[in-house]
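Human:
If only I could read backbone structure tokens as easily as an amino acid sequence. I am handing you a single protein, as its sequence and its fold in token form. I hope you can help me see how the letters and the tokens relate. Thank you; the sequence and its tokens follow:
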Amino acid sequence: MIDNHVHIGWFSDGYHKPADVWRAVREAGIDEVVVSSTSTCAEKYKLVVREMRELIRLGGPKIHPVLWLTPRMMRTWGLCFMLRSKVKWQGVKMHWFAHREWRGNRKLTQQAIDVARELDVPMLLHTGVDKCCEARVFEPLCLDNSDVTFILAHGRPLEQTTQVLSHCPNTMVDTAFMPTDDVTTLVNNGLAERIVFGSDAPINQLFFKKEMTTEYLKRQITELKTILSSDDFNAIMHRCPYKK
């Protein structure tokens, strides 16, 4: 099973060590992870590279690193450092809620997409209920860059996500913090093949303080297994667009 949305590093609830995160997901039955570092938000580029290298030492080819871009990284030495770090980035990420400049700076945003294009990897986009990062905001980007695969993290709002998936064949959606009813709706709309499993672990600890990450993951997997056909469940849990 593959978790397409995992984090390591500093977050508002403290530091999530690579070894601790890897242990938690493995104990939940997850075999591979697509991972980005929240330490990026503190612009700690050297730390991010050390974290990724540590995680790769633990998981080898089962680790799929995602390069989380920030506007500051794009304008400074950060991007070159990351690209020359010898970490084989298998995805690129933008988080428009965390970094609002993306929406107002089309040139910089296109440069970020070009990074994904040059690396020949998917672009992960955070979607949410805030107007700056609703799913429909990204439809023009997806249409104008049809040679790049975009993954709509969280799939919010659902109606807009369904619209983008329908209009843009180069898009997918991950289930990180997605209600099971939303997953069912996507499947019923014929979009099962565009869904990948994601959990946002260990950010769950911020919202479900009494539930350890391993137990949270087990619950997520069980809930999906309950609502999906065996074929859809197996396909979604084993699908990973970041693999090269």
Summary: The longest helix spans residues 45-59. DSSP finds twelve helices and nine strands in the chain. Strands lie at 2-11, 14-16, 32-37, 63-68, 91-94, 123-126, 150-153, 171-174, 195-196.
